[in-house]
Design a protein that fits this description.
Helices cover 60% and strands 0% of the residues. With 302 residues, the protein is mainly alpha-helical. The C terminus is likely disordered.
């Protein structure tokens, strides 16, 4: 069947086990495949109210409580609303542009999955910048009725994309790694230690189909999981694949007119003193290998 599974102890499985609801949700997801984040309006079958109706059925109590704790629907809604601290949008944008997105490109399996759709937003420079900012708005800005539905739609899109494009290495590891570039690097770079932060990403990840083994509930566990995947799949460094080159080329083209330009942000004497800590060290090495920046970029560690 492939990831995500419609069985097992995940919020994704709880929602999708109702065949009638599953058919309605799949119809919306197929309409949204490869497009922007839209499928979260009140007039669709994929809204937060409908998803909570499924999650909080009494028959789902045991599995749901194992994932999110023994809390009622009202408490669950309140907890999600507290999870995202009031961080500056500019900091979120810089996290996504200079750290989270570049890091995913250096995982070869993720690069293959992301580029499988051909002319999707992540391979089209004209769409990429808007897509990254849009991602920040939805993933780092809790807002009903879109949060749960966006997470579920992302999970469903993996199955849709696999069927449409004939493959793509969508596994628990690649999805967990991608989520960690937001949750772990977000906590690290934005200086967040609040446990609510990881509750937020646990809910999001479980609705994407991730099991609890891939959903750390604190910073130390997130760091350990990221380190494990990083060591297994990203190092030692290998020649870039055609999928990685495609994504990196689109990324550089999309931000070449940024102010200041993207490349300048990797030259330490042109940025704020702490900015090098935000940047992907592997992106810096990639730029150096292409002769695009000098050798004075301070290296940052994962």
């Amino acid at each position: 069947m492939g990831f995500p599974e419609t069985t097992g102890e995940t919020l994704y499985a709880l929602v999708m086990k109702d065949e009638e609801y599953k058919k309605k949700a799949e119809k919306v997801a197929k309409q949204e495949a490869g497009a922007r984040y839209k499928a979260a309006g009140k007039d669709t079958d994929l809204n937060d109210t409908a998803i909570m109706d499924e999650l909080f059925k009494s028959e789902n109590d045991t599995v749901r409580n194992k994932i999110i704790g023994a809390i009622d629907r009202k408490t669950f809604q309140g907890a999600l609303g507290r999870c995202i601290p009031k961080v500056k949008q500019q900091d979120i944008n810089e996290l996504l542009v200079y750290k989270a997105f570049p890091e995913t490109y250096f995982h070869p399996d993720i690069a293959e999955a992301l580029s499988k759709g051909g002319k999707g937003p992540l391979t089209n420079p004209e769409l990429l910048a808007d897509r990254i900012i849009e991602t920040g708005a939805y993933l780092f800005g809790y807002k009903e009725p879109r949060f749960l539905s966006t997470a579920l739609m992302v999970g469903m899109s993996h199955s849709v994309s696999r069927n449409m494009y004939g493959g793509g290495k969508y596994t628990e590891e690649t999805v967990a790694y991608t989520l960690l570039t937001f949750s772990f690097f977000g906590a690290k770079k934005l200086g967040i230690s609040d446990p609510d932060w990881f509750f937020y990403w646990k809910v999001f990840g479980s609705l994407m189909g991730l099991s609890l083994d891939y959903l750390p509930d604190n910073y130390d566990r997130a760091k350990a999981l990221m380190g494990s995947i990083h060591k297994k799949s990203c190092f030692p460094a290998k020649p870039l694949t055609v999928h990685q080159e495609t994504l990196l080329s689109a990324f550089l083209t999309a931000f070449e007119s940024d102010t200041p330009p993207l490349l300048d942000r990797y030259i330490v004497d042109k940025v704020k003193p702490t900015f090098s800590d935000w940047c992907s060290s592997r992106m810096a090495e990639y730029l150096k290998s292409k002769g695009l920046v000098g050798k004075n970029k301070k290296e940052s560690k994962t």
